[in-house]
Specification:
Blueprint (H helix, E strand, L loop, with lengths): L4 E4 L2 E4 L3 H11 L7 E20 L8 E18 L3 E8 L6 E4 L2 H11 L4 E4 L2 E5 L2 H10 L5 H12 L30 H18 L2 H7 L9
Antiparallel strand pairs: 1-2, 3-4, 4-5, 5-6, 7-8
């Protein structure tokens, strides 16, 4: 038993996501020619969920089912996708079993650029340099118009056995729960940066504190003490 986990039968309860996250980070650096590869799966976390409650208020009343916020288990699966890189899928174990799929648009664009011979430099999740910005922008514009129901439903079927059985004729209704618009700025040269730098410095001084500045520099706020 590790400090991060405890076992009850075949179930694995995580006190944090570090266990599977480490496996995902390792797999992200591995080269694979497969279209889809499961790199980690079935960690279990307990959290809030939208489910149903069976109630029978009084002996002479008929029981009924009502929507309710409850606590239930959430399963996490990690996949290495040929087009999107490392993604993870979270599914609620209680009906109606909603699914959340997380993926990285920058990783999709990086793989698209590489496949089309466009050179670039990338550090973590930020592009530092792209050889052909016009082509890169054209690729990025296609991201929103991808066939998302088809892409996401493929992973929904992988983690939901019922969709191969009693729910085989059903389809998920997909919505965007959270989306982040990239605000990365690429500076062409030192002269352009020198013109913009005073305004950036003023904005940072007026709007940010020491904690944010340390984060920008790749340092932890605890180093301030």
């Amino acid at each position: 038993m590790t400090p991060e986990t405890s076992r009850q039968g075949r179930k694995r309860f995580l006190r944090s996501r570090k266990v599977c996250g480490a496996a995902g980070n390792f797999a992200a650096s591995a080269k694979t020619s497969r279209r889809r590869r499961k790199v980690c799966g079935n960690p279990i976390l307990k959290g809030d969920c939208a489910a149903f409650l069976f109630k029978k208020p009084l002996p002479d009343q008929r029981p009924f089912v009502k929507p309710a916020r409850r606590k239930c288990l959430q399963l996490y699966f990690y996949f290495m996708d040929r087009h999107f890189g490392l993604i993870h899928v979270r599914i609620q174990t209680w009906f109606p079993m909603p699914i959340q799929i997380y993926l990285n648009g920058h990783e999709w664009l990086a793989r698209k650029l590489k496949a089309n011979g466009v050179r670039f430099s990338k550090q973590e999740n930020a592009f530092l340099w792209i050889d052909d910005m016009v082509r890169a922008q054209k690729f990025a514009n296609r991201f929103a118009s991808l066939n998302w129901p088809k892409i996401l439903s493929k992973y929904a079927k992988l983690v939901t056995p019922q969709m191969q059985d009693i729910l085989q004729d059903r389809q998920h209704y997909w919505v965007t729960s959270q989306s982040e618009l990239s605000t990365d700025i690429l500076i062409k040269g030192r002269q352009h940066l020198s013109e913009l730098y005073p305004e950036l410095l003023s904005h940072g001084t007026l709007c940010f504190g020491a904690k944010e500045v340390m984060t920008f520099l790749g340092r932890h706020s605890s180093e301030l003490t």
